[in-house]
Amino acid sequence: MFVSDYYSEDPQGIRFSRQQGSEFAKQIAGDYNPLHNPDEKLFCIPGDLLFALVLAKYGVSQRMHITFSGMVDDRQRLHFLQQEPGRLALQDSEGKQYLELIHSGTVNHEPQLLERLIRNYVSFSGHTFPDVLIPLMERHDVIINPARPIVIYQSMELALDSVDIAAPDLEFDGAQLDVNGKKGEVRLDFNLKLEDQIVGSGTKYMALRGLRPYDPGIAAGIVQSYM
């Protein structure tokens, strides 16, 4: 599967190079977050690449919930650890956890289905900032701090009526932002469709920190930094 081009694996574990992470972000997900630039001091691997890795290795289950709990860079050697049936963790050699997968139901490993799901989801996910979040923040009259833009990819979930399907399309189904002082919680919903019939749904959850009153000049500057 194409995902294998974006990580390497040996007996010491799974690792990602800066180039692999950056190319996946820009070429596959359309995500131009500066944190994914190869020369960025605070470089991190996109969460969407970790999602793609999970599906490439474990297939798609009828119910999946992935929680992201740490930033992965190009130094870690990572391993998947089955904690109990239906629960997996991605950890480094010191036991620090970066991702947890909880899954249930029937599993499908069909490569064409997995590739379509991966490409459709990460394209949707990679464009959420600034394409979706900037207008969403404007509607709520808030904006993140441009000097320290904290946008945290917390988790995502997926529910399919059946995994015995052809490759579905993904359709955005709305966004919600709950503001509490300087903090914001974002919910981005989507549906999976085959020939106009909904066959599944999912949600991406994000957290915003350091919110302040909306300023169109600040918003324009943030958007420009992602170009």
Give a brief description.
This protein is an alpha+beta fold and 227 residues long. Helix content is 27%, strand content 41%. Strand 4 (78-84) and strand 5 (87-92) form a beta hairpin.
Question: What does this molecule look like?
Answer:
The protein is an alpha+beta fold. It has one domain (2-225): Porin (Beta Barrel), CATH 2.40.160. Helix content is 27%, strand content 41%. The protein has 5 helices and 12 strands. It has helices at 18-28, 47-58, 111-126, 128-139, 216-225, and strands at residues 8-10, 13-15, 60-68, 78-84, 87-92, 97-108, 142-143, 150-160, 169-180, 183-194, 197-209, 212-213. The strands form 3 sheets. The chain has an 8-stranded antiparallel β-sheet with strand order 4-5-6-3-8-11-10-9. Strands 1-2 form a two-stranded antiparallel sheet. Helix 2 (47-58) runs antiparallel to helix 3. The longest helix is centred in the middle third of the chain and has 16 residues, at 111-126. The radius of gyration is 17 Å and the shape is globular. It starts with 7 loop residues before the first strand and ends with a helix. 32% of the residues are buried. The model has no long low-confidence stretch (mean pLDDT 95).
Number of structural units classed as domains: 1
Share of helical residues: 25-40%
Low-confidence stretches: none
Text of the CATH class: Mainly Beta
* Gross geometry: globular
